[in-house]
User: Fold these one by one.
Assistant:
Number 1:
Amino acid sequence: MVRLVLHDPDLLEARAPSKELAKVVVDLGRHQVSIGARPINLTNKEFRLLTHLIENEGETVPRAELLDTLWAGEPEPRPNPRTIDVHIRRLRVKLGEFEDIVHTVRGIGYRFDRHADVQVRAA
């Protein structure tokens, strides 16, 4: 009740009718993904992977580019390109029924296309 009286933007947005239309919410500023009202626990690499795909919406992102993005500035050596496939598989499992928001482009990489059930909030 206090949050409502103080006009908490998150609470007001949650009560808005448009909120009901988006089933998956990717909040780039908070580094959080939720399905309905349930937050999804993504690892840092899974979140960065999803974020990079969203930033390149509609474009096929090669595995090598994803590796460069996820392992940039890290002291460990760059892993095998198939490592991305493992991260994608884990991400899809966590997305459950919405796993199809990440498309596989066979032999090249992955792509995120705008989806009616996905709402992306900018940072």
Note: The two ends are 27 Å apart (CA to CA).
Number 2:
Amino acid sequence: MIRVEMLSTGEEVLHGQIVDSNAAWLASYLFDQGLPMTSRQTVGDSLEDLVAVMTERSHIADVLIVNGGLGPTSDDLSAQAVATACGVELIEDAGWIATMEAFFAERGKPMAASNRKQAQIPANAEILDNPVGTACGFTLGLNRCQLFFTPGVPSEFKVMVEQQIVPRLHRAYPGLEAPLCLRLTTFGRSESDLATQLEGLPLPEGVVMGYRSSSPIIELKLTGPRSQQALMHQAWERVREVAGESTIFEGFGGLPARLAERLLQQNLYLAIGEYFTGGLLNWRLQNAGVPLVGGELLAANTQDNSLSAQLARAQMLAERTGAQLALVTGGLDEDRLSLALHTPTGTRGMTIQYTVSRHSHELRQETIAMVAMDMLRRYLNGWPVVADYPWLTVLEKI
């Protein structure tokens, strides 16, 4: 394994004023390319700090991808920092000046004098093309490390990684292959509950069992070399067994997309009535392409929140819209909430007690939306619509 690291730059990233989406994208993309990221750091717009970090990491990492700091303003310091670390001068690349002038000419604009700064690179660097912006990237060696410098604009950064950096790394390290990652996502079980049952699971050499909690879901995954594929699939059967009916999908994607696929395959249409979830359920399902034929959004504090009322609303909503299925979430009355699902075989529902006080209002809405989608998933699987959730008390069910 080679050691691949990332250095994000900029005060706005360091202080959390913007989300570093580039780092999340890069980690996922490199993993799929067989180049998993080893570590990541963030540094502000300080020349001294940038020089120190680049120098330090160049003695440890095989590859360091530096993101940001290639703009035309005085706080864009990445090129100056690495030139200082290497003990070389910045030089203006005439070829990139011509590229920038053509970029602005195609758009009917003159190139500002400040943009010339974006063509200044260390004397020992090689240009990396940027087909969608004005900031060229560049690469150079420092100590044991190959450094790659990339613009912070996500669209420019991604193109440069895909077209310029990863191909170079595959040529430099031809034996690398993407690891095998088996994953499934669960709902309704706690991380500790799942981990307790999977503790002691024998794993092949180099294979790691991982957990990712993103309330209200838990992801389980096995990651390891492809040479262990057969043994990994054997271990994976035990993971599937433990997850059981709480598995809402395997692989990548999300539950709404899986529901859309199932409903379209069976030519089923869905109507939605929402109270506590405030339109979140409709938004999630509509964005995933679920075939919706109508619905309603009402203020929770003006409704009868009993289970019998939600069962009746689900049935009336189906009749009014002509949908075979109707899913309703009631209002939260103190710590109680009722949900109902109307189907061609009858109307089912439950009243739950939601007593997790540390959950925010938004997380409660997310959780209830997931419970509603899980009811629909269970119906499509031919299972009882109402499930037992350890952290929710079912007070009544029909």
Note: The radius of gyration is 27 Å.
